[in-house]
UniProtKB/TrEMBL annotation, chain B:
It comes from Mesorhizobium caraganae. PANTHER family: ABC TRANSPORTER PERMEASE PROTEIN YPHD-RELATED, ABC TRANSPORTER PERMEASE PROTEIN YPHD-RELATED-RELATED. CDD domains: TM_PBP1_transp_AraH_like. It is a multi-pass membrane protein. The chain crosses the membrane at residues 23-42, 48-69, 81-98, 104-123, 130-150, 170-189, 220-240, 252-269, 276-297, 303-320. Keywords: Cell inner membrane, Cell membrane, Membrane, Transmembrane, Transmembrane helix, Transport. It comes from the Bacteria. Its main location: membrane. InterPro entries: ABC_transp_permease. It is found in: Cell membrane. This is ABC transporter permease.
Length: 337, 325
């Protein structure tokens, strides 16, 4: 009996997995709240490449990108409301706040619009979320650090943009990692805003007051700046966890060639925007079996494979991965339990 | 002859042209709002509906309230660079304490208005530039907001949610709210005798002091009113967004200043217009977002286009006031 149930559920799932509706007339909007750093630029590039092809191939009718002028929540809430009025069938969103846009998101759902959030996700239950396990990424940073610095020691933490969910999750993961590895102690914490220049200034300011540091745990986009600050102060170079930025990996390569410097690099791939796009397309296609929370792996590079990836990254860019429709369907499938 | 001239016919024509310019200037906010509405109607006809106006304008209510708040300090020849982060702080308090411990929430918000009143006193007594003091305060409010709500979240009190999603018959709620705000402030500031004193503190403080009025008191009252409307703005914002974020109000500082100026106000001289300020805020809210979204500008240009729209809207205002001189 139980077997029969499982089988029929499986059959239903397979049936719904095939294309049920035509999405060639559907319009998908992308609401983006910020475009001012290398990661976001890479995200927009990836999204533009994949969606242009999807429109050319007549998979969807239109895929327009809307970026707000500032990082503010009210601006983006207004933008979502305007997209509702424009008559889009789906909205892909990188949100300025996980909670504060819920009012506008609910209005979109009520108007029958499919909402898929990624990176900056929204908590409104009616929306889909493509999430990267940032907490695990933070924890993994300390795990990797333990391999490079088996004796342990003092760590410096570089935080991201204060008050954001991503900063909070990575920080929580790092704290968890340090709790599991009592040989490490966080002796200082600065705010780097995921930006090399900000991180460099912040690290340079706190450096004179710090004891010797063996490693830096950070959030990506800040590793190269930290390295510059240490070099400028003439302090010994610690193990700096990297965040897949081109300048970070390039610095790592230089150091490796010099004296076999070892570290680890991880970040969310900007191309995850394209996965969110395909999720929206699949939902519009009539699929009902897609879970509202989709977990995708973060993109990590180790000592052995980062050099192969480096030439593919644009100068000043971020390592990325663009999803094809098949890969997206496979990623969705991996989340269906 | 020349000595008599100023009293007779030669001045009557400049005076009547000045009156015309004044009329034009008071009509300008309404004109620019109408222009933006026409553009929106042309680009997306379905936006001009009960549903459309409710969606497009509801986020303009907190902007209008913040603009009124800014208008009060401007009428006293001061500027408030902290109104944006103050709105954010109020939002965080509203989404946390005001819901979970209403009494504490109310006390904190009243205390915040008190802080504003004290700032007014400090700026007047020590003769400090308000730009410096409020710029400093903007970091204080931001820091407090992050303390109250370290990560985005919280939830608006139910009564506030119900109020902000109220759907009256025929006329969308944001329009009614805008009318009420404009009418109440217009009456208070433009039609009462103490309102005249308040504006006079920016227009001619020396005369006011000689007439025996306390400039300290007017400054305290103006700043307290700014605090009060900042609180209303933060609460309205959270009633719409349903949840808070420490950075939620940061963009309001500049929007509020631009709204006052667009609405026919001047940075000095106590010349402000509450009705104009509300219209200015609505115009800015519509021009910056719906208009931009409906125009289908390539993403690379959107941010710049937003700025360009603001400049065009504000430039019309500058042209008119130049004619007046």
């Amino acid at each position: 009996m139980k077997k029969l149930l499982v089988l029929s559920a499986l059959a239903a799932m397979l049936a719904s997995g095939t294309a049920l509706a035509d999405t060639s007339g559907k319009k998908i909007a992308f609401s983006n709240n910020y475009a001012g750093n290398s990661w976001r630029q890479a995200m927009l590039d990836s999204y533009g490449i994949v969606t242009k092809k999807a429109v050319d191939d007549k998979i969807v009718g239109a895929a327009d990108i809307f970026t707000t002028a500032d990082k503010e929540v009210p601006t983006q809430a207004a933008q979502v409301q305007n997209l509702i009025l424009q008559g889009y069938d789906a909205i892909v969103i990188n949100a300025a706040s996980p909670d504060a846009l819920n009012g506008a998101i609910k209005q979109a759902c009520d108007a029958g619009i499919v909402v898929v959030s990624f990176d900056g996700i929204v908590t409104e239950p009616c929306a889909y979320r493509v999430v990267v396990d940032f907490k695990d990424m933070g924890k993994q940073e300390v795990e990797q650090m333990a391999k490079f610095q088996p004796k342990g020691g003092n760590l410096l933490e570089i935080r991201g943009l204060a008050g954001t969910s991503i900063d909070d999750a990575i920080h929580a993961g790092i704290l968890e990692g340090v709790a599991a590895h009592p040989e490490f102690k966080i002796v200082g914490s600065v705010t780097g805003d995921w930006d090399q220049t900000t991180a460099q200034k912040a690290v340079a300011t706190i450096l004179p007051s710090l004891p010797d540091v063996v490693g830096i745990v950070d959030q990506g986009g800040d590793g190269y700046g930290a390295a510059q600050a240490f070099a400028a102060a003439g302090k010994p170079r610690p193990t700096i966890i990297m965040g897949n930025r081109q300048d970070e990996l390039k610095w790592w390569k230089e150091q490796k060639e010099k004296d076999g410097y070892k570290t680890w690099s991880a970040s969310i791939a900007p191309g995850v925007s394209t996965l969110a796009f395909w999720v929206a397309q699949q939902v519009l296609d009539g699929r009902k079996d897609i879970p509202h929370d989709l977990l995708v792996p973060y993109l990590a590079f180790t000592q052995d494979d980062f050099e192969a990836a480096l030439p593919k990254i644009k100068e000043g860019g971020v390592a990325t991965h663009e999803y094809t429709q098949e890969e997206a369907i496979a990623a969705i499938k991996a989340n269906i339990k | 002859m020349t000595a008599i001239a100023p009293g007779t016919t030669p001045t009557s024509s400049p005076r009547s042209s000045a009156a015309r310019a004044r009329l034009l200037r008071s009509l300008l906010p309404a004109l620019s709002l109408a222009l933006v509405l026409i553009a929106i109607a042309w680009l997306n006809p379905r936006a001009i509906s009960y549903f459309g106006f409710s969606l497009m304008l509801n986020l303009a209510i907190p902007i209008a309230l913040a603009t009124i708040a800014q208008m009060f300090v401007i009428s006293g020849n001061e500027l408030d660079l902290s109104i944006g982060t103050f709105v954010g702080f109020v939002g965080c308090v509203t989404a946390t304490w005001l819901k979970d411990a209403p009494l504490l929430g109310v006390i904190v918000l009243i205390g915040a208005i008190g802080v504003y009143a004290l700032l007014g006193a400090l700026i007047h007594l020590r003769n400090l530039p308000s730009i410096v003091v409020t710029l400093g305060m903007s970091f204080v409010w931001q820091g407090l907001a992050i303390l109250v709500l370290p990560k985005p979240g919280g939830k608006a009190p139910d009564w506030l949610l119900a109020l902000m999603s109220f759907k009256p018959p025929f006329i969308p709620f944001p329009i009614i709210a805008a009318l009420v705000i404009a009418a109440v402030v217009h009456f208070g500031l433009m039609r009462t005798s103490y309102g005249v004193i308040l504006r006079g503190s920016g227009g001619n403080p020396a005369a006011l002091r000689r007439a025996g009025w306390s400039l300290l008191r007017t400054k305290i009252v103006l700043f307290a009113l700014t605090g009060l409307f900042g609180v209303l703005s933060g609460m309205a914002l959270i009633g719409i967004t349903t949840s808070a974020d420490a950075n939620i109000g940061n963009g309001y500082t500049l929007l509020a200043i631009a709204g006052v100026i667009l609405g026919g106000g001047e940075f000095v001289g106590g010349r402000v217009s509450p009705i104009g300020a509300v219209l200015g805020a609505l115009t800015l809210a519509l021009a910056a977002s719906p208009l931009l979204t409906f125009m289908h500008i390539p993403p690379d240009w959107q941010v710049a286009a937003n700025g360009a729209i603001l400049i065009i809207v504000l430039a019309a205002r500058v042209l008119i006031s130049r004619r007046e001189r």
